[in-house]
UniProtKB/TrEMBL annotation:
<protein>
    <recommendedName>
        <fullName>Galactokinase</fullName>
        <ecNumber>2.7.1.6</ecNumber>
    </recommendedName>
</protein>
<feature type="active site" description="Proton acceptor">
    <location>
        <position position="197"/>
    </location>
</feature>
<dbReference type="GO" id="GO:0000287">
    <property type="term" value="F:magnesium ion binding"/>
</dbReference>
<feature type="binding site">
    <location>
        <begin position="147"/>
        <end position="153"/>
    </location>
    <ligand>
        <name>ATP</name>
    </ligand>
</feature>
<comment type="pathway">
    <text>Carbohydrate metabolism; galactose metabolism.</text>
</comment>
<dbReference type="InterPro" id="IPR019741">
    <property type="entry name" value="Galactokinase_CS"/>
</dbReference>
<feature type="domain" description="GHMP kinase N-terminal">
    <location>
        <begin position="129"/>
        <end position="203"/>
    </location>
</feature>
<dbReference type="InterPro" id="IPR006206">
    <property type="entry name" value="Mevalonate/galactokinase"/>
</dbReference>
<dbReference type="InterPro" id="IPR022963">
    <property type="entry name" value="Galactokinase_bac"/>
</dbReference>
<feature type="binding site">
    <location>
        <position position="185"/>
    </location>
    <ligand>
        <name>Mg(2+)</name>
    </ligand>
</feature>
<dbReference type="InterPro" id="IPR036554">
    <property type="entry name" value="GHMP_kinase_C_sf"/>
</dbReference>
<comment type="similarity">
    <text>Belongs to the GHMP kinase family. GalK subfamily.</text>
</comment>
<dbReference type="GO" id="GO:0005829">
    <property type="term" value="C:cytosol"/>
</dbReference>
<keyword id="KW-0418">Kinase</keyword>
<feature type="domain" description="Galactokinase N-terminal">
    <location>
        <begin position="23"/>
        <end position="70"/>
    </location>
</feature>
<dbReference type="InterPro" id="IPR020568">
    <property type="entry name" value="Ribosomal_Su5_D2-typ_SF"/>
</dbReference>
<feature type="binding site">
    <location>
        <position position="249"/>
    </location>
    <ligand>
        <name>substrate</name>
    </ligand>
</feature>
Length: 409
């Protein structure tokens, strides 16, 4: 298992130095500040966020770091230390939804802020940006694994939004930042995600999971102190690339919306678990039944996990995770052989429970284990991948970490 960010106490000062040095080298001059936003893993509550349901993510120690400074000509200059292709320069008129690449995420955030009337573009005058409009120079560096279902996109969006919020004195609360970032991802990047990832990145706190109602964004921090309980949570990145934009995610989302309409409810979260059997029988299209069954039972699993964590019974959450995986595999059909192998192997080797996390179709799994058994269970998973001829997975122990914040000053 890799040491990784979890075990490096000097990582944030070092990240500030690296980002500020990178900024100077690329943009000239000093950044005005350095901000960070984490990736996330989701403990339970999968594919419920676009059904107005509840979710329970926590922040990873892995972060996207943005060094930034204002520009008064409305221009955006975006540079990522982690991608080739140099600096992307976008004049205000060039911010157009659907333009791809990594820069679409920060550009989409600026677009969303302008669309909301919070940042003036060129010629719009008024306020913080001066005559030429509010622009920015950004230098981005990240250790959030990409394509691993761990929300590298949300981390980039939220770090960018937080930087602009502070630089232009917008005073936006974290929930509003998350909503604007989701708008950027939905309407600029073109991925029809829910709001879980952006809320997780913006609102999580160290040592807690975020119990979030995605309908009204009300949320609370639920203690999830793994070390104190003698537990560890392993994240296993199968390295099977997931792509939310490939249509499967959107198809399931559309299926849920069709089912809600057929059942006469605003969203599937409004189907009470006690009325699930009747709701399934009432659906005209039998293909919608497994979708509805997953969403309704998953929302119930979130409630169950929350009740257990409230009494400090972290170990008892294990079987709830495994039941969630079975539902995602069998009903929602978003797992894959590699994710199933992680869950089966880890549980057979003594894990308390395991499940895929995030959108699925590849990506990562979370495995709840006794701290003393972590190495052995990790090894069992790695060995099983080798025996099955799969690419070696990446494993790390994740401690619930801080949400988005300014790193310097
Ligand atoms: C992805 C999406 F971005 C989230 O909004 C959520 O729907 C998740 O898949 C599934 O729970 O991470």
């Amino acid at each position: 298992m890799s040491g990784g960010p979890e075990t490096d106490p000097d990582r944030y000062p070092a990240a500030v130095r690296r980002a500020a040095d990178g900024f100077r080298a690329v943009h000239g001059g000093d950044p005005e500040g350095v901000w960070a936003a984490p990736g996330r893993a989701n403990l339970i509550g999968e594919h419920t966020d676009y059904n107005d349901g509840s979710v329970m993510p926590f922040a990873l120690p892995h972060t996207t770091v943005v060094a930034a400074a204002r520009r008064d000509d409305g221009v955006l200059r975006l540079h990522s230390a982690d991608t080739s292709g140099g600096t992307v320069r976008l004049a205000p008129g060039e911010l157009a939804p659907g333009t791809g690449g990594w820069a679409a995420y920060p550009a989409g955030v600026v677009w969303a802020l302008r669309e909301a009337g919070l940042l003036p573009g060129t010629g719009e005058g008024g306020g913080a940006g001066g005559d030429g409009g509010a622009g920015a120079d950004l230098y981005v560096t990240s250790d959030v694994p990409t394509g691993a279902g761990l929300s590298s996109s949300a981390a980039l969006e939220v770090a960018t939004a937080l930087a602009l919020n502070d630089l232009y004195g917008l005073g936006l609360p974290a929930e509003r930042i998350a909503a604007l970032c989701r708008r950027a991802e939905n309407d600029y990047v073109g991925v029809p995600c829910g709001i879980m990832d952006q809320m997780a990145s913006a609102c999580c706190t160290a040592g807690h999971v975020l119990h979030l109602d995605t309908r009204d964004l009300s949320h609370r921090q639920v203690p999830f102190d793994l070390p104190a309980a003698g537990l560890r949570l392993l994240v296993v990145d199968t390295r099977v690339k997931h792509a939310l934009a490939d249509g499967e995610y959107a198809r399931r989302r559309a299926g849920c919306e069709t089912a809600a309409r057929a059942l006469g409810v605003r969203a599937l979260r409004d189907v009470p678990p006690g009325e699930l059997a009747a709701a399934l029988a009432a659906l005209p299209d039998p293909a919608l039944r497994p979708l509805v069954r997953h969403v309704v039972t998953e929302d119930e699993r979130v409630r169950e996990a929350a009740a257990l964590l409230d009494t400090g019974a972290i170990r008892a959450v294990g079987p709830v995770l495994t039941a969630g995986h079975a539902s995602l595999r069998d009903d929602y059909a978003v797992s894959c052989p590699e994710l199933d192998l992680v869950v089966e192997t880890a549980n057979a080797a003594g894990a308390l429970g395991a499940r895929m996390t995030g959108g699925g179709f590849g990506g990562s799994a979370v495995v709840l284990v006794e701290a003393a058994g972590a190495e052995e269970i990790g090894r069992a998973v790695t060995d099983a991948f080798a025996a099955a001829g799969h690419r070696a997975p990446r494993l790390f122990g994740a401690v619930p970490s801080a949400g988005a914040r300014r790193l310097d000053g």
